[in-house]
């Protein structure tokens, strides 16, 4: 990945004069910018050689003129342009990028957008520097990302623990990382993260969450399903309907693929792109509902998703809509 490569190059003393960091995943961009701000210069060097601009306030001329300066009492100076997506005339930096100052490392944070690769500006940066594009981690790879991050921190966790984090937080990598850092502080000498830890330190109930609701619906356990829905009604921040319905839809959409994937857990896990630990849930749901039942459930979820945003819901509460939905699903 570009993040590891860029930081590895810096640690080896290899620098390019320009780094353009773009894309819709801010986590990686922030990691690189924060590293540059805190690690590329010593504290004494930073006093003279670290300059930070913000795209909303800075002019391209100020950035360019600063970049043209020579380092003072250091091998290089570091210039950070944060929130560059808000700089209206940023393309005017092209003239500097054509002949960058060798002693300057210019790092541009351009979040939620991408530079048009057809422009001369883009080609100049690519020629004299580096363009790194960071994409959002898709939902189906989120558990894998969380597992990897937990290992990087020196911990391990059960598959259910990882799913709890993924389902509750979503693909906000910065927030996930912050929550894991919070856990690390509290775990002290332990190396295993449990569901109890998730409940205690992050506030995600191990028994009343979207994942447990999904399992209850999948197994047609109406009593448990209603119990979880009632918990959500009393704790609306635990799982809003806008999270619950897409999660259930995603589960049954994958369940519909089981009928073409084979009967073994390994085959299902491979076809659905899920951990083998969860393959049995999809197999069980497929057997219990059948192809017709899965199709009916997907149609109901689509209908109630519209009701959840206020279309033909008769003024019913989210809790009442969910109860009505699950009764129809299990009928």
TrEMBL record:
Q: Where is the DNA polymerase III delta N-terminal domain?
A: 19-131
Q: Which Gene3D superfamilies match?
A: 1.10.8.60, 1.20.272.10, P-loop containing nucleotide triphosphate hydrolases (3.40.50.300)
- Broad enzyme group: transferase
Which keywords does this Swiss-Prot/TrEMBL entry list? DNA replication, DNA-directed DNA polymerase, Nucleotidyltransferase, Transferase
First and last residue of the signal peptide:
none
Specify whether Protein transport is a keyword of the entry.
Answer: no
Highest taxon listed in the record's lineage = Bacteria
Report the InterPro entries cross-referenced here.
DNA_pol3_delta_N, DNA_polIII_delta, P-loop_NTPase
What name goes with this protein? Answer: DNA polymerase III subunit delta
Source species of the chain: Arachidicoccus ginsenosidivorans
State any GO CC term.
Answer: DNA polymerase III complex
Q: Name one GO biological process term.
A: DNA-templated DNA replication
GO molecular function annotation: DNA binding; DNA-directed DNA polymerase activity
The UniProt record lists the EC number as 2.7.7.7
């Amino acid at each position: 990945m570009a993040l590891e490569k860029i930081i590895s190059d810096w640690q080896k003393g290899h620098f390019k004069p320009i780094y353009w960091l773009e894309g819709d995943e801010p986590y990686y961009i922030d990691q690189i910018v924060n590293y540059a701000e805190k690690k590329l210069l010593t504290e004494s060097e930073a006093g003279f050689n670290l300059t930070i601009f913000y795209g909303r306030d800075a002019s391209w001329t100020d950035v360019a003129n600063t970049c043209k300066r020579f380092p003072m009492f250091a091998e290089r100076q570091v210039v950070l342009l944060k929130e560059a997506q808000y700089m209206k005339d940023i393309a005017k930096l092209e003239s500097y990028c054509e002949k960058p100052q060798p002693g300057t490392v210019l790092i541009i944070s351009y979040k939620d957008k991408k530079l048009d690769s057809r422009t001369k500006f883009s080609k100049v940066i690519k020629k004299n520097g580096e363009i790194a594009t960071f994409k959002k981690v898709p939902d189906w790879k989120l558990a894998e990302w969380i597992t990897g991050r937990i290992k990087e921190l020196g911990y391990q966790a059960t598959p259910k623990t990882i799913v709890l984090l993924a389902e509750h937080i979503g693909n906000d990598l910065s927030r996930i990382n912050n929550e894991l850092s919070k856990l690390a502080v509290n775990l002290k000498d332990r190396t295993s993260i449990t569901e109890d830890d998730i409940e205690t330190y992050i506030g995600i109930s191990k028994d009343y969450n979207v994942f447990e609701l999904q399992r209850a619906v999948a197994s047609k356990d109406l009593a448990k399903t209603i119990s979880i829905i009632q918990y959500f009604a009393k704790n609306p921040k635990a799982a809003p309907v806008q999270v619950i319905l897409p999660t259930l839809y995603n589960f049954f959409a994958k369940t519909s693929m089981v009928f073409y994937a084979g009967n073994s857990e390994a085959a299902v896990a491979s076809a659905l792109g899920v951990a083998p630990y969860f393959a049995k849930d999809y197999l069980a749901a497929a057997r219990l509902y059948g192809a017709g039942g899965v199709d009916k459930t997907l149609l109901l979820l689509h209908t109630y998703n519209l009701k959840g945003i206020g279309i033909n819901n008769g003024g019913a509460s989210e809790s009442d809509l969910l109860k009505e939905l699950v009764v129809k699903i299990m009928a």
